[in-house]
Structures are given as C-alpha cells and as structure tokens.
Design a protein that fits this description.
Helix content: over 70%
Shape: globular
Radius of gyration: 19 Å
Largest sheet: none
Number of helices: 13
Distance between the termini: 23 Å
Length: 275
C-alpha cells in the first residue's frame, strides 16, 4: 500500500490534470460558471432554513443554546458545504473508473489516481464555497477559536478525505462488475444525509428519550456524524464530538480506506478485463 501511495504521489501531476479537466468541463458553456458553486448551497440553505429553522424551530437544538453566535443558519451552512463535497463525490464514485476507461487501458499509471482525482476535484469545489461560509460568518456574527481552526477544521478535512477516498475506491471497483451499485448509492446518499447531523443537531437524537440506547450507539458509530460535528465545532465549540464519536469517526474512516483499497486491489485484474 505504501509503494502504491508513493506511485500516486509521483503521478500527482496526472491527478492535477484530471482535477483541472473536471472543473473545466463542469463550468464549460455555463453563463454563471463559478457562481454556481455559491448559488447551489445558498439555495439549499434557504430551503432547509425555511423548513427546519422556521417551520420546525430546529434552532432550539443549536449547540451552545439559542443565543449561540450565528444561530441555526450558520449551523446549517457549515454542515451543508462539506456535505456537498461528500455527496457529489459519493454520486460520482461508481463512475470513477468507467468514465476513464480509455485512459486506464492506455496509460501506465496507478489506477488509484482516478478515484483520488474524483475526491480531490470535489474537495476543490468545496474550497470554492468558502466565500459563502465566510459571508455567513460575518453577517451572522459567528465566532471561532484557535482550537476550532487549528484542530477541528484540519482534522475534519483529513478524516473526510480519507473516508470519501475509501468509499470511492470500493464503489469504483465494484461498480465495474456489478452495475447496480449506482442505484444503491442514490438511496445511501439520502439516508446518510439525515443520519449525519447536518441539518438537525445531534443533541435532538442523543438527548431524546424517544430513542433507545442501542439506536443512539448505532447513530454515533456513523463516521460522518463525527466528521460533521468536527465541522460544526469550528464555529460551535459545544458541538465538539465526544471521545466515543471521535474514535468511531477516525476509526471508521481508516477502516473504510483499508477495506476500499483492499477491494480495489483485489478486483483490479477483473476490472481491467471488464474495461
């Protein structure tokens, strides 16, 4: 695995070219171009704020209480932006190898660079949305801390990248042989969205007497829960993950990366024959 990782690093220019090509194709012949990176999350945030913030009064569960700087709107946008990175990467993961079939069969490069390029491209898209987040931070009076910027933010990005890459390696290889994966991913994407405390604070589940203990434990075992709690903790220190959630998140990401890579390597010969 280390030698393959080194090979990917040595071919980082190829990854860079794939990322730039993906971004160029995305905004090609688009009137608004880069502006779509900001308009889409703004539209989503507006819809979810109306439904959950106004209709269902989710503001009562915001970490730090009703008077927390930024309120529910900042909580919402700080979760939606990294979610879009994960969600789009998850949707494109099954096609990571199929869409590059000609390159894979003609270029002598590690095949891992194609899943890496998918995740990296969506990460760059996520970075493009940071002006939106900062706009909300300043407009809503959001605050952060040294711990939020130096600990939770980099840790959230690293763990999310590892988790996303593991899933992409797994789905990209399996989907070449079993094309039903794309349909399963569409369902999984929606389930994970509501199971990861993105638009609803996790306290509404963990502090509720409605749910049994086994369900709360299962809820915390979702690696994405810890990832998005880390994203939220940048602006809401009260939402920092506890030890169990943090270990489940980091451990789940590492385990997913190992399983995804092992599956990718094991199926590589069959995938090449199919392509």
């Amino acid at each position: 695995m280390a030698s393959r990782a080194l090979a990917v690093w040595q071919n980082r220019k190829v990854v860079s070219l794939l990322v730039r090509r993906d971004l160029k194709v995305k905004y090609q012949k688009s009137v608004l171009g880069y502006a779509w990176s900001m308009l889409e999350p703004l539209a989503m945030a507006g819809v979810y704020f109306f439904v959950f913030g106004l209709v269902f009064n989710t503001n009562r569960g915001v970490p730090g209480g009703d008077d927390a700087p930024g309120g529910y709107m900042l909580f919402l946008i700080s979760g939606l932006l990294p979610w879009l990175w994960f969600s789009v990467a998850l949707n494109e993961a099954p096609k990571a190898l199929i869409s590059h079939a000609k390159l894979i069969t003609t270029m002598k490069v590690p095949r891992e660079i194609f899943p890496v390029a998918v995740v990296s491209s969506k990460f760059v898209d996520y970075l493009f949305t940071w002006p939106v987040l900062l706009m909300f931070v300043f407009a809503l009076g959001g605050r952060t801390s040294a711990g939020g910027l130096l600990l939770w933010l980099p840790l959230a990005l690293i763990v999310q990248f590892a988790f996303s890459l593991g899933i992409t390696l797994l789905l990209a290889s399996v989907n070449v042989l079993v094309r039903d994966v794309e349909r399963v991913v569409r369902i999984l994407n929606r389930v994970l969205f509501y199971a990861s405390a993105i638009i609803i604070p996790s306290s509404l589940v963990l502090d509720s007497e409605t749910f049994p203990d086994w369900f709360k434990t299962l809820y915390q075992l979702n690696p994405l829960l810890g990832i998005f709690k880390m994203h939220h903790a940048v602006w809401y220190p009260a939402d920092a993950p506890n030890a169990f959630t943090l270990v489940a998140s980091i451990g789940g990401a590492v385990l997913t990366l190992v399983i995804g890579y092992a599956t990718f390597r094991r199926l590589e010969t069959s995938v090449l024959k199919e392509l």
